[in-house]
Amino acid sequence: MDVSGFRQVRVIPRRLSLVLGAVGLALSILAASASAAAADRPSKCSGSFESPGVLAGTYSSNVVVEGACVVNAGPALIEGNLTVSPGAVVLAAFAEGSSALTVQGNLKVQRGATLILGCEPQSAYPCVDNPAVPSQGSVSGNLSAQQPLGVVVHDSTIDGNIHEVGGGGGFTCENKGPTVGGFPVFGAAFGGLPVFSAYEDSTVHGNLSVIGLTSCFLGVARDHVGGNVDLTNNQLADPDAIEILSNQISGNLLCQQNSQVWDSFEAVPAGPLFPRVPNPNTVSGHRVGQCVLASPSEEGGASGPGPF
Question: Is the model's pLDDT at 269 over the cut of 60?
Answer without folding.
Answer: yes
